[in-house]
Write a structure and sequence with these properties.
13 helices, 65% helix, mainly alpha, two-stranded antiparallel ribbon, 412 residues
Length: 412
């Protein structure tokens, strides 16, 4: 444990001194500025310092040791935010594999861990209430994955690239994690589409043989996995676990629309249309994250790649999505049955058409708003050489304003 108070992000006037003896002390490992990817304020850092001081106590009584174990665990989970979701996952997996297959606990955990409603004698899976359990469980998994990747994999990479400012480093972590995720889901979605008559964004296939009530294991895992990811991302956004951007309200609206589209498309069997929308979002988001990462690294290819990103964004988020919107206005009614039948689960009818159009159109409006910001960045880059993200506040200003807000609260 370092004795330097500066490594803890604390003022030099209150250094933490080491005692000559380590008896009764608990060391939580790396005590550099919090390894958490969550926003850190001066108040949180003061609490961390207080916990570290408690751990320096050499008392060896049973109650003192128990207390220090508790304090040490709190400090450890503050610095390594992936630990608690990992514990939850390990407990769930461990209980599942050790419990009796006929027991109720085992069956509940099986519904959470493994896709439900397999149709015997086929490779197809149906839908039902257990899918909510699956989504909830893997939202916890994505919480662990995000925090572990950022803390243990991506942060060392950012340090290697020489990114030292905490706020800029967190932005870098967010974008490289997005690259990691979308770099997997984008190609995976295309692979699933390639195996279907839907290839390549054949909008007519949305409605032929509708309703699509069953899917193979790959499609179901992909679709529900995406749902889990967006649920987790929505929690991160709403609880402001990432530093809010200038377009915070637009992001909230985007996530609400996305969650609504996911649920409606899955519940009412428009999953082939949902797959197409997923792909357009994931691939364009990968290019967005890579473009921003290159900008953080001050790469010489930032400008040329940004132009490529704009082309990909316009093609996928606007051209393809407008084709999907047009199909909702036309083919939705003319291809296949157009009636409401609760018994056969035929929901392609007069009421679902405007709802589907409204949700995708609302998503298109948000995308168009971001396209305007993208062109503003392009304009400034071409004519002034500035490539700052319109959606992000200045990193230094973020940290200063956050700390000053804490100080004002303390004075009051």
């Amino acid at each position: 444990m370092s004795s330097s108070s500066s490594s803890l992000g604390v003022p030099h006037e209150n250094p933490i001194r080491h005692r000559s003896s380590s008896v009764g002390r608990i060391d939580v490992g790396d005590t550099s500025a919090s390894l958490s990817t969550m926003p850190t304020t001066r108040s949180l850092r003061r609490r961390s310092i207080a916990r570290l001081k408690e751990l320096q106590d050499n008392s060896t009584t049973d109650s003192a040791i128990v207390h220090k174990l508790y304090v040490g665990f709190r400090e450890l989970t503050y610095r390594h935010t992936w630990i608690i979701p990992l514990i939850v996952l390990l407990m769930a997996f461990g209980t599942y594999y050790l419990s009796s297959p006929s027991g109720k606990v085992h069956q509940v955990l099986e519904d959470m861990i493994i896709p439900s409603y397999h149709i015997p004698g086929t490779d197809q899976y149906g839908k039902g209430g257990n899918d909510f359990k699956f989504v909830g469980f893997y939202a916890i998994f994505f919480t662990f994955l995000r925090e572990f990747m950022m803390c243990c994999v991506l942060r060392p990479i950012s340090v290697w690239f020489g990114i030292k400012k905490e706020a800029k480093q967190k932005r870098f972590l967010e974008q490289t994690y997005a690259m990691f995720y979308y770099g997997i889901t984008g190609p995976f979605g295309l692979w699933i589409m390639r195996r279907l008559p839907l290839w390549y964004f054949n909008t007519t296939q949305f409605y032929i043989n509708y309703p699509h009530k069953t899917h193979d294991i790959y499609f179901k895992i992909y679709y529900l996995g995406q749902a889990a990811f967006w649920v987790q991302q929505s929690v991160v956004l709403i609880l402001q676990l990432e530093k809010p951007r200038k377009d915070f309200k637009e992001l909230v609206l985007h996530h609400i629309i996305t969650i609504a589209l996911i649920w409606c498309s899955y519940r009412f069997h428009f999953t082939w249309m949902g797959l197409a929308v997923y792909i357009t979002m994931d691939i364009s988001d990968f290019f967005l994250a890579l473009s921003k990462t290159l900008n953080y690294l001050e790469s010489p290819i930032t400008g040329p790649f940004f132009v490529i990103f704009i082309g990909v964004w316009i093609y996928l988020r606007h051209y393809i999505n407008l084709q999907i919107l047009w199909s909702v206005l036309t083919e939705f009614r003319t291809v296949g049955d157009f009636e409401l039948n609760w018994i056969t689960q035929q929901y392609k009818c007069w009421i679902s058409q405007p709802i589907t159009f409204f949700l995708i159109f609302a998503l298109q409006l948000v995308n168009f708003y971001w396209l305007v910001l993208i062109f503003r960045i392009l304009y400034r880059y071409v004519f002034t050489g500035v490539s700052k993200d319109e959606r992000s506040d200045d990193e230094d200003e973020d940290e200063d304003s956050e700390d000053s807000a804490d100080e004002k609260k303390k004075e009051q």
